[in-house]
Amino acid sequence: MSSQALPETFVPGFHDENEVRKMTYIPLGNTGLNVSKIALGTAGFCYFYGDYDIEECKKTVHEAIKKGINIIDTAPWYGHGESEKILGLCLEGIPRKAYYLNTKCCRYAKDPALMFDFSAERTRRSIDESLKRLKQDYVDVLQIHDIEFSENLDLVLKETLPTVQEICRTGKARYIGITGYPLSVLKECVERSHVPIDTVLTYCRSTMIDNSLDDYLNFFQSKNLGIINAAVQSMGLLTNNGPEPWHPADNTTKEVCRDAAEYCKKENVELGKLAFHYSLKHGAGDSILVGIKTRTLLNYNLDVLYNGLNPKEQEVYAEVLKILKKLSPNRHWENVELEV
């Protein structure tokens, strides 16, 4: 879609038309949804990523949508329902036509024994709980969350996916998605599934320290999947504030990223802005999902999208890339569970 065209989510009188016309919209696979290049992530609407302010979250969501961001992502797992509940409050007063809303199922509680449940019964209950928290009649994409943690992939294929398909037939969701960290598992699920899958969400896989997604793009695109590229700041690693204590990266990765952050702070440049620029320039995926819980974060991401980096930031960017070369290519933390 031309960046000058108005998307189907445009609502006269609500949107800032000039801002919407600036936004780039891209078809999300074969869904028929034309989504903004930036997707609004709401994992920060809970304690997972430190402090947050509900009123600021509300103002951020309203401003983001008015400026043309039309895809929002949440999950029951984020704050164990807190993110969905707060997002539901934030969406009050916004026309439903103005945005696409994605949530997830199958990952829930902090207790490891109760964290994952891929059963049909729990999945059916999950969508009802999510819709109640979100104050919505439906979501656009219902995603099976972190499929690699199922006791076996057959359970996802034979029970969870058919249940999500059933949920779509009831009108509580429109499209089916899967998410995960190991790209090989996402690929296997798509290959083996008898239920049509519409989207894949992968995170921390197209960043300044890990470009593993490149190796799977052709496959996902050949299946006409919408590709959501999440956590391009590596869940806080590539920001000036650094990651939360629970981050699963090894100490060497954290130390090198901390060196990059310290250099950025010395130069008065935000590392997260450079990381977002890198992923935009790299070009993997249809929409880049960025956690945004303040208008400050919103506007610096929009600034990078529209204006790139200024000369000073370009200099710092080049130096940061040199610092990060201390790490081996495609640095990852597969098979390390989070404690949050």
From TrEMBL:
<dbReference type="InterPro" id="IPR020471">
    <property type="entry name" value="AKR"/>
</dbReference>
<dbReference type="Pfam" id="PF00248">
    <property type="entry name" value="Aldo_ket_red"/>
</dbReference>
<dbReference type="InterPro" id="IPR023210">
    <property type="entry name" value="NADP_OxRdtase_dom"/>
</dbReference>
<dbReference type="GO" id="GO:0010349">
    <property type="term" value="F:L-galactose dehydrogenase activity"/>
</dbReference>
<protein>
    <submittedName>
        <fullName>L-galactose dehydrogenase-like</fullName>
    </submittedName>
</protein>
<dbReference type="GO" id="GO:0005829">
    <property type="term" value="C:cytosol"/>
</dbReference>
<dbReference type="InterPro" id="IPR036812">
    <property type="entry name" value="NAD(P)_OxRdtase_dom_sf"/>
</dbReference>
<feature type="domain" description="NADP-dependent oxidoreductase">
    <location>
        <begin position="37"/>
        <end position="313"/>
    </location>
</feature>
<dbReference type="InterPro" id="IPR044479">
    <property type="entry name" value="LGALDH-like"/>
</dbReference>
